Amino acid sequence: MIRSQIVVRLDSREKSAMKASTKVEVIQVLHVDDDTGFLKVAKQCLELHGNFVVETASSVDVVKRKMKMKAYDVIVSDYMMPGKDGLQFFKELRQKGDKIPFIIFTGKGREELAIKALNLGADGYFNKLGEPETVYGELAHGICQAVKIRKAEEALRESEERYRLLFEQSPIGIGILSLDGVVVDTNRAMRTLTRYSKVELEKINLTELCANPKQRKELIEDLRRHATVVDFLVRLKRKDGTLYNGSLTATRIRIGDKDFLQTTLQGTIEHKRTAENDKTLGKSKVLNVTSELTRDRT
Protein backbone atom coordinates (compact mmCIF):
# COMPACT_ATOMS: atom_id res chain seq x y z
CA MET A 1 0.00 0.00 0.00
CA ILE A 2 2.79 2.38 0.97
CA ARG A 3 4.67 1.46 -2.18
CA SER A 4 1.68 2.25 -4.43
CA GLN A 5 1.19 5.62 -2.72
CA ILE A 6 4.82 6.51 -3.37
CA VAL A 7 4.41 5.55 -7.02
CA VAL A 8 1.32 7.73 -7.29
CA ARG A 9 3.18 10.69 -5.75
CA LEU A 10 6.07 10.24 -8.16
CA ASP A 11 3.69 10.01 -11.10
CA SER A 12 1.93 13.22 -10.08
CA ARG A 13 5.27 15.02 -9.80
CA GLU A 14 6.33 13.77 -13.21
CA LYS A 15 3.04 14.95 -14.70
CA SER A 16 3.48 18.39 -13.12
CA ALA A 17 7.01 18.61 -14.48
CA MET A 18 5.81 17.55 -17.92
CA LYS A 19 3.09 20.19 -17.86
CA ALA A 20 5.59 22.85 -16.84
CA SER A 21 8.05 21.83 -19.55
CA THR A 22 5.40 21.74 -22.27
CA LYS A 23 3.66 24.94 -21.19
CA VAL A 24 3.16 27.27 -24.14
CA GLU A 25 3.53 30.99 -23.58
CA VAL A 26 0.23 32.88 -23.65
CA ILE A 27 -0.04 35.52 -26.38
CA GLN A 28 -1.94 38.66 -25.41
CA VAL A 29 -4.03 39.84 -28.39
CA LEU A 30 -5.84 43.15 -28.71
CA HIS A 31 -8.48 42.95 -31.49
CA VAL A 32 -10.08 46.17 -32.75
CA ASP A 33 -13.19 46.20 -34.97
CA ASP A 34 -16.23 48.46 -35.05
CA ASP A 35 -18.53 45.36 -35.36
CA THR A 36 -18.99 44.30 -31.72
CA GLY A 37 -20.95 41.18 -32.70
CA PHE A 38 -18.10 40.03 -34.93
CA LEU A 39 -15.58 40.74 -32.15
CA LYS A 40 -17.33 38.26 -29.82
CA VAL A 41 -17.31 35.50 -32.43
CA ALA A 42 -13.73 36.21 -33.49
CA LYS A 43 -12.54 36.12 -29.86
CA GLN A 44 -14.07 32.66 -29.33
CA CYS A 45 -12.75 31.28 -32.63
CA LEU A 46 -9.23 32.62 -32.18
CA GLU A 47 -8.89 31.40 -28.58
CA LEU A 48 -9.84 27.91 -29.78
CA HIS A 49 -6.95 27.98 -32.29
CA GLY A 50 -4.09 28.71 -29.93
CA ASN A 51 -2.88 29.82 -26.53
CA PHE A 52 -4.33 33.29 -26.95
CA VAL A 53 -6.01 35.69 -24.55
CA VAL A 54 -8.03 38.04 -26.73
CA GLU A 55 -9.27 41.43 -25.56
CA THR A 56 -11.50 43.51 -27.80
CA ALA A 57 -12.00 47.18 -28.64
CA SER A 58 -14.62 48.80 -30.85
CA SER A 59 -12.51 51.80 -31.90
CA VAL A 60 -8.98 53.13 -32.10
CA ASP A 61 -9.67 55.41 -29.12
CA VAL A 62 -10.60 52.41 -26.98
CA VAL A 63 -7.40 50.64 -28.10
CA LYS A 64 -5.29 53.61 -27.02
CA ARG A 65 -6.89 53.62 -23.56
CA LYS A 66 -6.32 49.88 -23.17
CA MET A 67 -2.69 50.12 -24.29
CA LYS A 68 -2.01 52.68 -21.56
CA MET A 69 -3.19 50.21 -18.91
CA LYS A 70 -1.69 46.96 -20.22
CA ALA A 71 1.00 45.58 -22.52
CA TYR A 72 -0.10 43.42 -25.47
CA ASP A 73 1.87 41.14 -27.74
CA VAL A 74 -0.01 41.93 -30.96
CA ILE A 75 -2.77 44.10 -32.39
CA VAL A 76 -5.28 42.65 -34.85
CA SER A 77 -7.15 45.45 -36.59
CA ASP A 78 -10.01 45.88 -39.02
CA TYR A 79 -9.34 48.21 -41.93
CA MET A 80 -12.54 50.23 -42.37
CA MET A 81 -13.56 51.85 -39.08
CA PRO A 82 -15.19 55.19 -38.19
CA GLY A 83 -12.84 58.04 -37.32
CA LYS A 84 -9.54 56.34 -38.16
CA ASP A 85 -8.93 53.27 -40.32
CA GLY A 86 -6.54 50.42 -39.48
CA LEU A 87 -3.66 51.62 -41.66
CA GLN A 88 -3.85 55.17 -40.31
CA PHE A 89 -3.67 53.76 -36.78
CA PHE A 90 -0.74 51.53 -37.77
CA LYS A 91 1.21 54.47 -39.23
CA GLU A 92 0.52 56.53 -36.11
CA LEU A 93 1.95 53.78 -33.88
CA ARG A 94 5.11 53.42 -35.96
CA GLN A 95 5.66 57.19 -36.07
CA LYS A 96 5.61 57.16 -32.27
CA GLY A 97 8.21 54.38 -32.25
CA ASP A 98 5.80 51.64 -31.10
CA LYS A 99 6.87 48.41 -32.82
CA ILE A 100 4.13 46.10 -31.53
CA PRO A 101 3.25 43.46 -34.18
CA PHE A 102 0.28 44.72 -36.20
CA ILE A 103 -2.01 42.56 -38.37
CA ILE A 104 -4.79 43.77 -40.65
CA PHE A 105 -7.86 41.47 -40.48
CA THR A 106 -10.58 42.73 -42.77
CA GLY A 107 -13.42 41.74 -45.07
CA LYS A 108 -12.09 44.11 -47.74
CA GLY A 109 -10.24 41.60 -49.86
CA ARG A 110 -8.73 43.94 -52.41
CA GLU A 111 -5.25 42.98 -53.48
CA GLU A 112 -4.07 46.61 -53.58
CA LEU A 113 -5.02 47.02 -49.90
CA ALA A 114 -2.98 43.97 -48.92
CA ILE A 115 0.01 45.27 -50.88
CA LYS A 116 -0.32 48.72 -49.31
CA ALA A 117 -0.50 47.26 -45.79
CA LEU A 118 2.57 45.07 -46.27
CA ASN A 119 4.53 47.86 -47.98
CA LEU A 120 3.86 50.09 -44.98
CA GLY A 121 5.39 47.39 -42.77
CA ALA A 122 2.33 45.62 -41.35
CA ASP A 123 3.17 42.17 -39.98
CA GLY A 124 0.34 40.44 -41.79
CA TYR A 125 -2.86 40.78 -43.80
CA PHE A 126 -5.74 38.30 -43.53
CA ASN A 127 -9.24 38.20 -45.00
CA LYS A 128 -12.21 37.63 -42.71
CA LEU A 129 -14.18 35.89 -45.45
CA GLY A 130 -14.04 32.12 -45.88
CA GLU A 131 -14.38 28.93 -43.87
CA PRO A 132 -13.91 29.81 -40.18
CA GLU A 133 -11.54 26.88 -39.60
CA THR A 134 -9.26 28.07 -42.41
CA VAL A 135 -9.61 31.80 -41.68
CA TYR A 136 -8.78 31.54 -37.97
CA GLY A 137 -6.18 28.83 -38.49
CA GLU A 138 -4.28 31.15 -40.84
CA LEU A 139 -4.79 34.15 -38.57
CA ALA A 140 -3.55 32.19 -35.52
CA HIS A 141 -0.45 31.08 -37.43
CA GLY A 142 0.18 34.65 -38.62
CA ILE A 143 -0.09 36.00 -35.07
CA CYS A 144 2.32 33.38 -33.69
CA GLN A 145 4.86 34.09 -36.44
CA ALA A 146 4.66 37.87 -36.01
CA VAL A 147 5.11 37.65 -32.23
CA LYS A 148 7.94 35.12 -32.58
CA ILE A 149 9.83 37.33 -35.04
CA ARG A 150 9.39 40.46 -32.94
CA LYS A 151 10.59 38.73 -29.77
CA ALA A 152 13.61 37.36 -31.65
CA GLU A 153 14.39 40.90 -32.85
CA GLU A 154 14.10 42.24 -29.30
CA ALA A 155 16.32 39.46 -27.94
CA LEU A 156 18.91 40.24 -30.63
CA ARG A 157 18.79 43.96 -29.84
CA GLU A 158 19.21 43.27 -26.11
CA SER A 159 22.09 40.91 -26.85
CA GLU A 160 23.76 43.56 -29.01
CA GLU A 161 23.30 46.16 -26.27
CA ARG A 162 24.88 43.83 -23.69
CA TYR A 163 27.77 43.11 -26.06
CA ARG A 164 28.27 46.83 -26.72
CA LEU A 165 28.32 47.51 -22.96
CA LEU A 166 30.89 44.76 -22.33
CA PHE A 167 32.86 45.87 -25.39
CA GLU A 168 33.09 49.50 -24.26
CA GLN A 169 33.75 48.77 -20.59
CA SER A 170 36.41 46.09 -21.09
CA PRO A 171 39.78 47.09 -19.57
CA ILE A 172 41.47 45.37 -22.52
CA GLY A 173 41.79 47.22 -25.82
CA ILE A 174 39.42 45.66 -28.38
CA GLY A 175 39.08 46.47 -32.07
CA ILE A 176 37.03 45.11 -34.96
CA LEU A 177 38.95 45.09 -38.25
CA SER A 178 38.36 44.11 -41.84
CA LEU A 179 40.40 41.10 -42.97
CA ASP A 180 43.01 43.43 -44.50
CA GLY A 181 43.49 45.29 -41.19
CA VAL A 182 41.32 48.38 -41.68
CA VAL A 183 39.81 49.47 -38.35
CA VAL A 184 35.99 49.28 -38.23
CA ASP A 185 35.29 49.80 -34.52
CA THR A 186 37.24 50.21 -31.26
CA ASN A 187 36.47 50.35 -27.57
CA ARG A 188 37.50 52.99 -25.05
CA ALA A 189 40.50 51.01 -23.75
CA MET A 190 41.93 50.69 -27.27
CA ARG A 191 41.55 54.42 -27.85
CA THR A 192 43.18 55.19 -24.48
CA LEU A 193 46.10 52.87 -25.20
CA THR A 194 46.79 54.24 -28.69
CA ARG A 195 45.72 57.86 -27.89
CA TYR A 196 43.81 58.03 -31.16
CA SER A 197 40.14 59.01 -31.34
CA LYS A 198 37.53 56.58 -32.69
CA VAL A 199 37.28 58.51 -35.97
CA GLU A 200 41.08 58.69 -36.35
CA LEU A 201 41.51 54.95 -35.79
CA GLU A 202 38.85 54.14 -38.38
CA LYS A 203 40.93 55.97 -40.99
CA ILE A 204 44.07 53.84 -40.52
CA ASN A 205 45.25 50.26 -40.84
CA LEU A 206 46.18 48.60 -37.55
CA THR A 207 49.57 47.57 -38.92
CA GLU A 208 50.45 51.27 -39.27
CA LEU A 209 50.77 51.40 -35.48
CA CYS A 210 53.77 49.04 -35.60
CA ALA A 211 56.97 50.99 -34.91
CA ASN A 212 59.29 48.23 -36.14
CA PRO A 213 59.18 47.67 -39.94
CA LYS A 214 60.27 44.03 -39.54
CA GLN A 215 57.48 43.33 -37.04
CA ARG A 216 54.98 45.14 -39.27
CA LYS A 217 55.90 42.90 -42.21
CA GLU A 218 55.68 39.76 -40.04
CA LEU A 219 52.28 40.80 -38.66
CA ILE A 220 50.88 41.48 -42.15
CA GLU A 221 52.14 38.11 -43.42
CA ASP A 222 50.63 36.24 -40.46
CA LEU A 223 47.27 37.97 -40.91
CA ARG A 224 47.23 37.23 -44.65
CA ARG A 225 48.28 33.61 -44.18
CA HIS A 226 46.20 32.63 -41.15
CA ALA A 227 43.79 35.55 -40.55
CA THR A 228 44.71 35.09 -36.89
CA VAL A 229 47.58 35.84 -34.51
CA VAL A 230 47.91 35.00 -30.82
CA ASP A 231 49.96 36.98 -28.28
CA PHE A 232 52.00 38.66 -31.01
CA LEU A 233 54.57 40.78 -29.16
CA VAL A 234 55.06 44.03 -31.00
CA ARG A 235 56.59 47.49 -30.55
CA LEU A 236 53.86 50.08 -31.14
CA LYS A 237 53.69 53.81 -31.63
CA ARG A 238 51.03 56.09 -30.17
CA LYS A 239 49.58 59.11 -31.90
CA ASP A 240 51.95 61.38 -29.96
CA GLY A 241 54.96 59.34 -31.13
CA THR A 242 55.71 57.63 -27.82
CA LEU A 243 56.60 53.94 -28.07
CA TYR A 244 55.33 51.00 -26.01
CA ASN A 245 55.38 47.20 -26.05
CA GLY A 246 52.09 45.41 -26.70
CA SER A 247 50.62 41.93 -26.99
CA LEU A 248 48.24 41.58 -29.94
CA THR A 249 45.73 38.78 -30.56
CA ALA A 250 43.46 38.67 -33.63
CA THR A 251 40.79 36.06 -34.36
CA ARG A 252 38.36 35.73 -37.26
CA ILE A 253 34.67 36.34 -36.45
CA ARG A 254 31.52 36.55 -38.57
CA ILE A 255 29.09 39.46 -38.28
CA GLY A 256 26.04 39.05 -40.49
CA ASP A 257 27.35 37.67 -43.77
CA LYS A 258 30.86 39.16 -43.52
CA ASP A 259 34.11 38.04 -41.87
CA PHE A 260 36.08 40.38 -39.61
CA LEU A 261 39.03 40.26 -37.24
CA GLN A 262 38.41 40.82 -33.55
CA THR A 263 41.63 42.07 -31.99
CA THR A 264 42.71 42.55 -28.40
CA LEU A 265 45.66 44.72 -27.45
CA GLN A 266 47.33 44.92 -24.05
CA GLY A 267 50.39 46.74 -22.82
CA THR A 268 52.96 44.13 -21.74
CA ILE A 269 54.74 43.98 -18.37
CA GLU A 270 57.81 45.50 -20.00
CA HIS A 271 55.68 48.39 -21.19
CA LYS A 272 54.30 48.92 -17.69
CA ARG A 273 57.76 48.78 -16.18
CA THR A 274 59.00 51.30 -18.74
CA ALA A 275 56.14 53.65 -17.86
CA GLU A 276 56.94 53.29 -14.16
CA ASN A 277 60.66 53.86 -14.82
CA ASP A 278 59.83 56.99 -16.82
CA LYS A 279 57.87 58.34 -13.85
CA THR A 280 60.74 57.49 -11.47
CA LEU A 281 63.25 59.08 -13.82
CA GLY A 282 61.12 62.22 -14.00
CA LYS A 283 60.95 62.42 -10.22
CA SER A 284 64.74 61.92 -9.87
CA LYS A 285 65.37 64.72 -12.36
CA VAL A 286 63.20 67.06 -10.30
CA LEU A 287 65.08 66.08 -7.13
CA ASN A 288 68.47 66.63 -8.81
CA VAL A 289 67.45 70.06 -10.06
CA THR A 290 66.11 70.99 -6.61
CA SER A 291 69.34 69.87 -4.87
CA GLU A 292 71.45 71.82 -7.33
CA LEU A 293 69.40 74.97 -6.73
CA THR A 294 69.83 74.51 -2.97
CA ARG A 295 73.62 74.19 -3.28
CA ASP A 296 73.77 77.33 -5.43
CA ARG A 297 71.89 79.32 -2.81
CA THR A 298 74.25 78.18 -0.03
How would you concisely characterize the structure shown here?
By secondary structure, this protein is of the alpha/beta class. It has two domains: 20-165, Rossmann fold (3-Layer(aba) Sandwich), CATH 3.40.50.2300; 170-267, Beta-Lactamase, CATH 3.30.450.20. It contains ten helices and ten strands.
Describe the structure.
The protein contains ten helices and ten strands. It is 52% helix and 22% strand. The chain is an alpha/beta fold and 298 residues long. It has helices spanning 2-21, 36-48, 60-69, 86-95, 111-120, 132-169, 188-194, 198-201, 213-226, 269-297, and strands at 27-32, 52-57, 74-77, 102-106, 124-127, 173-177, 183-186, 229-237, 243-255, 258-267. It is elongated. The chain folds into two domains: 20-165, Rossmann fold; 170-267, 2-Layer Sandwich (Beta-Lactamase).
Please give a handful of descriptors for the protein shown.
298 residues, alpha/beta, Rossmann fold, Beta-Lactamase, 2 domains, disordered C terminus
Gyration radius, rounded: 32 Å
Q: What spatial form do the alpha-carbon principal axes imply?
A: elongated
Biggest beta-sheet profile: 5 strands, parallel
- Number of E-state strands: 10
Mean pLDDT: 82
